[in-house]
Specification:
- The chain is of the alpha/beta class.
- The chain folds into two domains: about 1-120 and about 310-340, Quinone Oxidoreductase, Chain A, domain 1; about 120-285, Rossmann fold.
- About 30% of the residues lie in helices and about 25% in strands.
- The strands form three sheets. Strands 3, 4, 5, 6, 7, 14 and 15 form a seven-stranded mixed sheet that branches. It has a six-stranded parallel sheet with strand order 10-9-8-11-12-13, with helices on both faces. The protein has a two-stranded antiparallel ribbon with strand order 1-2.
- It is globular and about 60 Å long.
Length: about 350
Amino acid sequence: MRQIVNTSNGGYEVLEVQEVPDLEPESNEVIINVKTAGLNFADILARKGQYPDGPDKPCVMGYEVSGVVSSVGSRVDDKWLGKEVITFTRFKGQAEQVATRESQLFEKPERLSFEEAATLPVNYLTAHILIEVMGSLKSYESILIHNVGGGVGIAALEIAEHIGATTYGTASKRKHEFLIERGLDYTIDYRNKDWYEELMDLTDGKGVELITDPLGGKEWKRSYKALRATGRLGMFGISSASEGTSGGISAMWGMLKTVVQMPFYHPLPLIGKNRGVFGVNLGHLWHEPEKAKVWMQEILQGVEDGWINPHVDATFDFENVDKAHRYIENRKNIGKVILTP
């Protein structure tokens, strides 16, 4: 089988498609022939050496796939053979085959394509935890979704819209028409305007109850400032660390600069302002499989009920993985980017 290998830290040239032996299942595993694999911003950070949770190089990245079960271990129900499925992967997802445990396996909804199904395990699960599990967004509240045009952003928009909350989102101007069609109430052009000032103008100086922020650095300070009373800030990434870097020394400097700019939250000001902050990292939830299963079932129910409709922006075959990385890094995508063997 073939897999995408990050041979070292650096630019697009470190990504190689390599041939390795086919997989054999352990007793409690299934082997999936991969139809589609997700690409996320964490993969960009990992390539550059800016992702602290990433495996040592050389490595294969990838957190989610959809495909068909080709073989099962001796302790796995053979009902899974030939089933169209989706699954989480702790890396190694960007390959023609993946091995996964039965407990991490979910049947692919019939109405979704393989490409659409691969958006669920990372984008929708992250958004679900941010908004419903930890953010506790209510219909009478409002939310600011940073990078609302990205994969997690569009998932967050759908969830917030289903709840009935008022939605604000930051995105480049060219994405606004699409986002309005998807139900976004208020668009903010963060590239040509100060998003904080725009949000405060739109909310008559009040701010919002929930902000989902993958930016990191100094933007977390401004997001916290934009919360109204009982507001919550959900942090789930540090994409600002990647801007203008290609790996090596520049990547290390970008990460250090972002970390230095991060705020510290003391309990007393939080109490005084009636605000809360929390973080979400799917990579640190592998010890909570029971919860993840419940959350995924809730997402799949949303698909079944018809209000979750994933948007895939672009697909790239394995040989063009460098173009896929560039596409995300240049903020061209509206929604999910998918890799296909």
